[in-house]
Design a protein that fits this description.
337 residues, globular
């Protein structure tokens, strides 16, 4: 079945004109959504916790943050950009008691609606506008005159124009400049989790660490290993980004291309695909979601141990040293606090 792809010409800002939109959370996604929509001429308010870095950043950007409860009381539409694990508590304590019929709840990821850890009443719209990229790109691409493509989903249409409202928001944040794909909460949630776990994040970082360890254990310098299995990734991904796998292969040497096609499938083999199928099954049956909710409820003890171990992995310590020697990169570090 062909996908439905929409652009700016297929909608307008009209459904959100003279409305108040509350962006709940001013983190990676929130800051991009709020600033872009404000610059598109919409009336945007922000909800954030006082004393946090995000609160201070919102103030620096010209917003006067309020509580989530106050935001819901004032707004016609709420853009929920809070972390998945935090959303159910905030919904129960601050959003639900203040919801009014005809309001719109807009999510940027379908996790809590799909797995029913949040169940809104039937008299509000439930939609999703999910940019297919990090929030910092949502902001930077918009500022350059472009936009990050978005997925648009309607789970519940209480007002009869939920899709138009979602399209208006996609236009406001710049997504409709690149394209808006119509899909469902189920498909967005399951494919997004799968991509993160097996390729984009989990699969990629595991390949980097195993590749680095293999070279170092074989006696090669850690700095050489870092450049080969981590630093050069950007060059390859950039080629794939602009022209697909075929263009990447066209751009590399014949030797590299032969190694890609002949050796690559021996590394990421059918057993890896079987593991991917197991990961997908855990996403589809909800067991991954339950495990993550349980981990959060226990205080993230395992999460913190895994995170600390990876932060101290040699590929990270060596990489940090090498990046500091390349000022043109504009190397970044995770903010403290």
């Amino acid at each position: 079945m062909a996908i439905e792809m929409l652009y700016e010409k297929d909608g307008s800002l009209a459904p959100l004109q003279d409305k108040t939109i509350a962006v709940l959370g001013y983190g990676s996604q929130g800051h991009g959504h709020a600033q872009n929509a404000r610059e598109s001429g919409l009336n945007v308010i922000v909800a954030e916790l006082p004393g946090t870095n995000n609160f201070n950043t919102a103030k620096e950007h010209g917003f006067e943050p309020v509580t989530a409860a106050e935001a819901v009381q004032q707004a016609d539409m709420m853009i929920v950009t809070l972390p998945d694990e935090v959303q159910p508590t905030v919904y129960e304590k601050e959003i639900a008691p203040n919801l009014k019929a005809g309001q719109t709840l807009c999510f940027t990821h379908g996790f809590n609606i799909h797995y029913k850890t949040i169940v809104p009443p039937q008299d509000v719209n439930i939609i999703m506008v999910a940019p297919k990229g990090p929030g910092h790109l949502v902001r930077s691409e918009f500022a350059k005159g472009g936009g990050v493509p978005c997925l648009l989903c309607v789970e519940q249409d209480a007002t009869g124009n939920a899709k138009d409202i979602g399209m208006a928001w996609a236009i406001a944040i710049g997504g409709a400049r690149s394209g808006v794909i119509i899909t469902t909460f189920k498909d967005e949630t399951e494919t997004d989790l799968f991509g993160e776990q097996v390729v984009l994040c989990g699969g990629l970082t595991s390949l980097i660490k195993h590749g680095f360890d293999t070279l170092v254990e074989a006696g090669y310098d850690p700095e050489m290993a870092y450049f080969e299995v981590c630093h050069e990734l950007k060059l390859i991904v950039d080629l794939i980004y602009v022209g697909g796998i075929d263009y990447m292969r066209y751009s590399i040497s014949n030797t590299a291309e032969w190694g890609d096609m002949h050796v690559g499938p021996k590394i990421v083999d059918e057993q890896v695909k079987e593991n991917m199928k197991k990961a997908l099954a855990a996403i589809q049956d909800g067991s991954f979601a339950r495990e993550w909710r349980e981990e959060y409820a226990k205080g993230l003890s395992t999460f913190k141990k895994l995170y600390e171990a990876d932060c101290n992995h040699p590929v990270e310590t060596v990489g940090k040293k090498l990046r500091a020697m390349m000022p043109w990169l504009g190397a970044k570090e995770v903010p403290k606090g």
